[in-house]
Every structure is written in structure tokens, then in C-alpha cells.
Design goal:
40% of the residues lie in helices and 20% in strands. With 538 residues, the protein is α+β, with helices and mostly antiparallel strands. Strands 3, 4, 5, 6, 7 and 8 form a six-stranded antiparallel sheet that branches.
Length: 538
């Protein structure tokens, strides 16, 4: 079936459910002349659908949002296929498009609503807000002369986003300044970064955290590696935890950055010829001058599994963490009339050894599919079923498994041993740690000039930690002092990371924060094993 014909089919189905049933029936026999059974089912069921809509319209006792009902019907249709085929309403489609295009137009701030005002968490690098000198902790108290107190996040997007080249006036209240000041900013293209952090953990270990696989991901990861090169790194933790995937082509491109042999990185198989693809590595684009650990967890899915699967199958590095999601299906997003879309599974993908890592699923029962992902005993269950799963051999002869995600070479569970009080402080909508650190950094900015010295030697003293408690009191945030003291090392690290973020930026903040991540700390102990893969054909 051609792409043009596939597009026509979906358009007709949607048009029919929107009320153009007779017109649709004129074309259905032509589209399905090779499959009369499908035609008969559609003819019968669309007639039933028309009856249901008529009955609801005539007899239902309350007012009806027909658009909402039809969206529900479309969702139900797609849910009967597989867990990853889905209907996307028009109102959601624009946000999704922005995310995977990797950009939108606006002023470029990460923000939260704190104490009723838009508060800058971080300006996006090289954005209008960054060029205008906005700082973490700045409060936007007015937009185009209108008070912005108690503004909603949806209203922020409407007022601050806009056409490239258009102007917006904002009024800023800054920590340490008595009087507010006005700034006029010209909206511009704002990147939505795939790379969440690129930093140095120690003198030889680089770290890259990848959030998603969007149109700009390859470019961003190359830039991140170039940045780490300046620090002379010779080993890398590539963090794919919580990365739910994205573009297939970008997944192959990222895998290629680590592979220096002309190997298959991933291949797909589907019903139509367009669904059958093989992505072959270009040795000239790969690097093997550093040892590699890929960090994964149950939130690592799809494109993340393609990268980790290629690294594992080709013995390029070590996979560490928890078993991944187990999504071995490829979707194509197809536009529909009115701005909505459907995401249709069109192929399975396979790792270099031929592994299909898709978890089993029951059509139409997504609840069980996702519920088992978060079971506390998930890893024990996976381990107990290992011998029943298909087995494959990596290039070096190691056993790896199909049929249920990427099983890590080294299992390291994530540990969160924080008290409830500390967790409450972290979740508090007023973001007290951020506010305290921003105020402290503003007042002591002259004391900080060298990040490396700050990272190695600067500590949150007893008096600073005591000042944090005083800040909680002033902000009327309830807490239990003994509980917070029990988590002192974590909290002081978080204060230190927020100070680093205020002065030097998000990457430096992440570099500090990683010290309390047990999976990172333990992964560092396995670089001897990762080193062993260097020089083995790559």
C-alpha cells in the first residue's frame, strides 16, 4: 500500500465519522477492492456509528460535547491496535510538533509560578532572555504594562511566546535591587534542547544526559562531546534514563557516534516496502577514543533502546542500570483533517544481533501493559524468566536477551532513601531550595570566580545550613528539623548545585547534583569493564 493511499484511507475514515458518511461510501469500494471483508466491516460499523451519534444527539439528557465524544471514539479505535498506536487531538499536536522540531518562538526562559509571579529558573542559552541578561530568580511582575500577579502557565505561554521578530515588554523585580526595571525583548527561535546536561564528573569522566531524540539531537550530542573534549575526558557516562525516545533516524545517528565499524545499527520490518529499512554505521562518523557506559532504566524506551542495544550488541561499551521499557515498535505520524493526527505502528525494529525487544502486550489492554512496568518486583520477575527469553550473542560472544527490553550488563537499582520531610521540601510549589540558593548567590557573588575550585572545595557550612532553616521559617514552610538534618548531605548538595546553576549555568549545576545519584556513583566503579571493550574492533 502506498503512502498516498494510506493517507487517503485515514482521511476518509475521519471524514465519515465527522458526518460525511455518504461521501465516504462512494470511495470505500475503490480503496478496499482488494479486501472486501474490510469494506463490509466498515460499511456496517460506520452505519452503526451514525446511529449512535444520532441517538446521543436526540435523547441524551444533558448537553454533549460532540468533539470530545468523537475524540474518545478515535482514541478507542487506536487503543485496539497496540499500546503505541494513538490518536492525537489537534490541541495537543502543536506542542508535540514543537517538541520534536526542537524549537519554538518566544523569549526563552525556563520558569515556574512562585508566590504568584513568573519566576525565571534559567534563561535558555543564546535566547532573547539570555542576551537581555535575565537571571535565575528574576520575577516578571508585568507584561506589556499589565500586572502579571497570579498569572497561569497557559497565560504565560500565550503572552510571552509569539512570532519571531515581534516585541514584548516585561517588568523585572530582581533579588538585591529595590526598584523593578523594564526590558524590551524581540522574540526569536528558541531551541528545545535534547541534551539536558553535558559536564565533567571528575578529571577524566564526561557525562551527557539526553532527554529525547528530536530533529536536533545529533547536532547537540556532537556539540556536547566537543565541549567535553576541551576538558580532556577519556571515558563517558551517556545517560538515557527516562528518555522515552523520538525519531528513529536520530537514534541511529547517535548510535553511529560511538561505532567505528560498518555495522548494522538497527533495522526495521513492516507490511509495506517503505517500512523496511536498515541503518548502517559510517565508520568516519564514529569515535572509539573513550570508554563508554550507557545508563538506562525502565523509562528508557524506543530510540533509547536502539542506542543501548547497538552499544551492547556490538560490544562498544557497558550498559548499566535497570532493564529498559521494552518498546520494539516503530510509529509513523500521519496528519488528519482539522490539525489532528494518528500515530500508527508500521514496523518492528531489531538490534544488530536480530533482537526484537518488544514486551508482550494484549490488544486493547494498555492498563496491564503499563502497570507491570512499575511493579516493585519487576527486575526479579525479568531475571526469573531469562531462560525463557530468546538468546543472542554479541560480537564478542556475550549472551543478551530479546523479548522484553534491554537487560543491562550490570544491574544497579536506583535508591531513594530520603525522609518524607525532605521529599516534601523538594516537591514544595514555592521551590524553597532554589529561592534560598538564588538569594545567597546574589549576596555572595564576589566570592565565586572559579567553578573547579567551587566544585572541589566549597562547602555549605553549618551557618549556611542554619540560614536555610531560617528561610523556611520566614516563608512559613513547615518542616521537621531532625528529619532534614538526617538528609543534610543531600540538601547541602542540592543548595550547592542551585548556587552553581545561578552563577555558571545548568551543566555545572548538574555536575554538582550527580554526587548524590547512587547509579552514577556506582557506575563509575565499572569503567574497568567498559575499558576492556576498547580496541576490540572499534
Amino acid at each position: 500500500m502506498t503512502k498516498q493511499k494510506l493517507r487517503r484511507i485515514w482521511t476518509i475514515v475521519v471524514s465519515a465519522t465527522g458526518g460525511f458518511l455518504l461521501a465516504a461510501f462512494l470511495f470505500i469500494p475503490q480503496l478496499y477492492s482488494n479486501n472486501q471483508n474490510v469494506y463490509k466491516v466498515l460499511k456496517d460499523k460506520i452505519g452503526v456509528l451514525q446511529q449512535i451519534i444520532s441517538y446521543i444527539n436526540l435523547f441524551y439528557f444533558d448537553t454533549v460535547d460532540m468533539e470530545k465524544i468523537m475524540d474518545g471514539a478515535f482514541h478507542g479505535l487506536m487503543e485496539e491496535l497496540d499500546p503505541h498506536s494513538t490518536y492525537i487531538p489537534a490541541k495537543e499536536q502543536e506542542n508535540i510538533d514543537e517538541l520534536f522540531r526542537g524549537k519554538f518562538q518566544g523569549i526563552g526562559i525556563e520558569f515556574d509560578i512562585l508566590h504568584g509571579y513568573i519566576t525565571v529558573i534559567s534563561p535558555v542559552p543564546d535566547s532573547p532572555s539570555d542576551r537581555a541578561g535575565l537571571q535565575p530568580g528574576d520575577k516578571i511582575i508585568a507584561i506589556n504594562g499589565k500586572d502579571a500577579y497570579k498569572i497561569t502557565k497557559d497565560e504565560v505561554f500565550k503572552k510571552l511566546r509569539g512570532r519571531k521578530g515581534s516585541a514584548v515588554d516585561i517588568t523585572i523585580r530582581r533579588i538585591g535591587l529595590i526598584d523593578p526595571f523594564d526590558v524590551t525583548m524581540i522574540r526569536d527561535d528558541i531551541p528545545i534542547h535534547s541534551v539536558g546536561a553535558a559536564t565533567i564528573i571528575d578529571n577524566e569522566t564526561g557525562y551527557i544526559f539526553l532527554r529525547r531524540f528530536s530533529a536536533t539531537t545529533e547536532k547537540e550530542v556532537k556539540a556536547a562531546l566537543k565541549k567535553l573534549d576541551k576538558h580532556g575526558f577519556n571515558r563517558l557516562i551517556f545517560d538515557l534514563r527516562g528518555n522515552s525516545g523520538g525519531f528513529l533516524e536520530q537514534a541511529a545517528a547517535i548510535a553511529n557516534l560511538f561505532i567505528t565499524t560498518k555495522d548494522t545499527l538497527v533495522y526495521t520490518k513492516g507490511k509495506i516496502p517503505e517500512a523496511n529499512q536498515a541503518f548502517i554505521a559510517d565508520p568516519a562518523k564514529g569515535r572509539d577514543d573513550f570508554s563508554l557506559i550507557v545508563l538506562i532504566n525502565r523509562g528508557s524506551a524506543s530510540a533509547s533502546e536502539i542506542v543501548s542495544g547497538a552499544v551492547q550488541d556490538l560490544d562498544r561499551g557497558l550498559t548499566v542500570g535497570e532493564t529498559t521499557f521494552g518498546k520494539g515498535l516503530v510509529q509513523r505520524q500521519l496528519p488528519l483533517d482539522g490539525g489532528s493526527a494518528v500515530r500508527v505502528t508500521m514496523a518492528r525494529y531489531y538490534t544488530p544481533t536480530g533482537r526484537l525487544i518488544q514486551r508482550p502486550y494484549e490488544d486493547g489492554n494498555d492498563l496491564i501493559y503499563y502497570r507491570e512496568l512499575y511493579a516493585k518486583n519487576r527486575e526479579e520477575k525479568i531475571d526469573s524468566l531469562k531462560e525463557l527469553r530468546p538468546k543472542y550473542k554479541t560480537r564478542g560472544g556475550r549472551i543478551v536477551y530479546g523479548g522484553g527490553g534491554i537487560t543491562p550488563d550490570v544491574y544497579i537499582p536506583y535508591k531513594n532513601e530520603l525522609t518524607g520531610q525532605t521529599s516534601k521540601i523538594l516537591r514544595h510549589p514555592g521551590r524553597p531550595i532554589f529561592n534560598f540558593a538564588s538569594t545567597y548567590a546574589t549576596e555572595h557573588i564576589s566570592e565565586f570566580d572559579d567553578f573547579d575550585l567551587f566544585r572541589e572545595y566549597w562547602l555549605v557550612s553549618e551557618s549556611i545550613f542554619s540560614d536555610f532553616f531560617s528561610y523556611l521559617d520566614l516563608d512559613s514552610i513547615s518542616y521537621n528539623a531532625d528529619s532534614l538534618q538526617a538528609d543534610r548531605s543531600f540538601l547541602t548538595n542540592r543548595i550547592k548545585s542551585e548556587i552553581a546553576g545561578f552563577i555558571w549555568g545548568k551543566d555545572e549545576a548538574a555536575g554538582i547534583r550527580l554526587a548524590t545519584d547512587n547509579q552514577i556513583s556506582e557506575a563509575l566503579n565499572y569503567f574497568d569493564e567498559a575499558d576492556a571493550f576498547l580496541g576490540s574492533g572499534h
